[in-house]
From TrEMBL:
GO cellular component: cytoplasm
Protein name: NAD-dependent epimerase
Domain of life: Bacteria
UniProt-listed InterPro entries: Epimerase_deHydtase, NAD(P)-bd_dom_sf, NAD(P)-dependent_oxidoreduct
Chain ranges passing through the membrane: none
Record-linked SUPFAM superfamilies: NAD(P)-binding Rossmann-fold domains
A GO molecular-function descriptor: aldehyde dehydrogenase (NAD+) activity
């Protein structure tokens, strides 16, 4: 039996779809108030199991008969006020999953993040050999994913049969205008600014396919960057704008401008009680040049990633 945590999430739903498309039965975890995505709704091959990864007592029964676990569940936020919840879910929750995998002799594929990788030296790409130099002042999400990954490495040292994947920024049609799709909405509505940063991007379908291939591979105690390619944010915004046939951003948002923006929005949020659209962490990330090397996963699985240009075209056509 295959167990998937975070089954109602963006990546979890795509993973379950691909597994069930192969005729495999999947037991998927969901919380009581979670909405099942249309992508996998009414799928007879899914056994939904109500549980919370932070409550081990509800998890034990879910592991009955399970041999493979895909741990996709996570809390995502670049707002430092969510630090406590980020640590609770991404570290403590992962620790619970690791412990139960060891106890039940399950193979684990853990979804970490590029946020748990090292900072590249100037002019070089980040690879699996890089490890983030611990910094207690780093943004809470990155720190939580780093510490969560450390729980998996701890399990591997205790005999866990496990593999870690570090996806870059995951995009896909099924995200709509939520999550990574929010930038498509901003550009479509007339975003005037771009930032001088860069990152890696990948289609959600390719991430799920990579995970399935790695689960089946005879490899353990390894991590793999899952990324299609690197792109500067200015080019990303321009291609999205072209896809929607709107004006592309033409003004660069300088670091000092972003600094004023996140401080002002933080103050406004105190009175409106709404999440600020820019935080200190998102401002910092938007001007960081990060390039990722996907050689290892390609050599291991033979996967052919969908080019970032194609991903953008498909999403804009779908969202029009």
């Amino acid at each position: 039996m295959i167990l998937v945590t975070g089954g109602t999430g963006f990546l979890g739903a795509e993973l379950i779809k691909q597994l069930t498309d192969q005729g495999l039965t999947v037991r998927a975890l969901r919380r009581e108030k979670s909405k099942i995505p249309d992508l996998i709704k009414d799928n007879a091959l899914i056994e939904w199991f109500m549980a919370d990864i932070n409550e081990p007592s509800t998890l034990e029964e879910a592991f009955s008969g399970v041999t493979q676990v895909y741990h996709c569940a996570a809390f995502v936020s670049l707002n430092s006020k969510h630090k406590k919840q980020l640590f609770h879910v991404n570290i403590d929750g992962t620790s619970n999953i690791v412990n139960l995998c060891i106890e039940n002799n399950c193979r684990l594929l853990h979804v970490s993040s590029i946020a748990a990788l090292g900072i590249a030296k100037k002019g070089k790409q980040i690879s699996e050999r890089d490890f983030w130099e611990y910094d207690s002042k780093a943004h809470a999400y990155g720190l939580s994913k780093y510490e969560g990954e450390m729980e998996v490495w701890r399990g591997i040292n205790e005999g866990l049969n496990g593999v870690i994947v570090n996806p870059s920024i995951i995009m896909g049609k099924s995200a709509g205008f939520e999550g990574s799709g929010a930038i498509f909405k901003l550009v479509k509505e007339g975003l005037p600014f771009y930032t001088n940063g860069a990152s890696g991007f990948v289609d959600v379908e390719d991430v799920a396919q990579s995970m399935i291939l790695l689960m089946a591979a005879e490899v353990t105690g390894e991590r793999f960057i899952i990324s299609s390619g690197n792109m500067h944010y200015q080019d990303l915004f321009t291609q999205i704008a072209q896809g929607f046939a709107v004006n592309a951003p033409t003004r660069e948002a300088k670091p000092w401008m972003l600094g004023l923006a996140w401080r002002a929005l933080k103050l406004v949020s105190v009175f409106t009680r709404k999440e600020p659209s820019i935080t200190k962490d998102t401002a910092t990330s938007s001007v960081t040049l990060s390039y990722y090397d996907n050689t290892k996963v390609i050599e291991q699985t033979g996967i052919h990633f969908k080019p970032v240009n194609q991903i953008i075209t498909e999403i804009t056509q779908y969202l029009k």
